[in-house]
């Protein structure tokens, strides 16, 4: 059993001078918990209605949200044996493109009390009005309308424009617990650059534009790389639909265009899942490498703290020749850093966008890094004493402690 009493200093900024010295290990890589294609959602709630079997038809009103306050609608809903019949009419609906060129249509959704969303169908507009006649297997559900890039989407976007508003005319029993569901943020659909129309296009129907949009979104989501077979199927279907349209064969053009949009949406969804799986696998591999590094330097790992830092987005690693040679949970008062060499430590300090809290702790016996910090504009806030009680292993590398441990 050994105890240690060692000097540490608290360093803070007088001005920031990012690391830009001689050739050093590769610039630190931030372990980002939210990659480009990760599904990002927001939560909402709305009233679910239990349309009781044999209770007769129920009239349900739709009200516009803040995105479309003048929109309104009315649905006639009746529970039959094994399914529920829905007839709904909407009015005062502007074109979906009013929310951005990426959005071409509106979709009606059924939301179960458990939060499962089912695409009931597209709202085809005629002078701001639309009629939809559909069925669903659900008996208890809420209904919402969202603006979407195409009609084949599998999860509602955050552009919620209408939802059901139970009134005294409702015969069904209103659920006591609200239906909580998730909406895809707009960031999941990359903005359209340019136009979906091509040179020479004349009177292109909406369903062709939607199919083009679906294929574009799948392409930008990484589908050609992560699910090339399904993506290729979508592109071929789109080309076939365009050929039918050129030959003025509207019915097969419509059918194949919808098939193209569905295939493209499948490709996008699969690509997003595979990208997320790849990110998780890489994150686990990086975390394992960091734990091994900490064990080499200190004789133990601090995996829980590292995991928390990854979730918070503050963790960074530095690599040299493809290997992780240092990591930090944040250059901060309440974070720790472990590196193989002083150059790794300098790279992490220099890459920090800010120092959390009053500064960070640096052992004074690391003269090289201490002098480097002072030379690059940092100043000593005040000296502190680091003490440990119990088993102690002399660190075999460069490190910075946290005030907590």
Parts with pLDDT < 50 across at least 5 consecutive residues: 1-6, 13-26, 30-39
What's the shape?
Answer: elongated
Largest sheet: 10 strands, antiparallel
CATH top level assignment of the largest domain: Mainly Beta
Number of distinct helices:
7
Q: How would you name the oligomeric state of the polypeptide chains in this document? A: single chain
* Structural class label: alpha+beta
**From the 3D coordinates, which CATH architecture of the largest domain would you assign?**
Sandwich
Topology:
Elements: E1 2-13, E2 26-30, E3 41-46, E4 49-50, E5 58-64, E6 72-80, E7 83-91, E8 105-111, E9 117-123, E10 130-136, E11 140-148, E12 160-165, E13 173-174, E14 179-184, H1 206-220, H2 223-226, H3 228-246, H4 250-298, H5 303-312, E15 316-320, E16 323-328, E17 337-339, H6 342-351, E18 360-363, H7 367-375, E19 378-390, E20 398-400
Helix pairs in contact: 1-3, 1-4, 3-4, 6-7
What is the gist of this entry?
By secondary structure, this protein is an alpha+beta fold.
Describe this structure in words.
- This protein has 405 residues and is of the alpha+beta class.
- The protein folds into three domains: 2-31 and 313-400, no CATH class; 41-184, Immunoglobulin-like, CATH 2.60.40; 206-277.
- Helix content is 29%, strand content 32%.
- The protein contains seven helices and 20 strands.
- It has helices spanning 206-220, 223-226, 228-246, 250-298, 303-312, 342-351, 367-375; strands at 2-13, 26-30, 41-46, 49-50, 58-64, 72-80, 83-91, 105-111, 117-123, 130-136, 140-148, 160-165, 173-174, 179-184, 316-320, 323-328, 337-339, 360-363, 378-390, 398-400.
- Strands 4, 5, 6, 7, 8, 9, 10, 11, 12 and 13 form a ten-stranded antiparallel beta sheet that branches. Strands 2-15-16-17-20 form a five-stranded antiparallel beta sheet, sandwiched between helices.
- Strand 5 and strand 6 (72-80) form a beta hairpin.
- It is elongated.
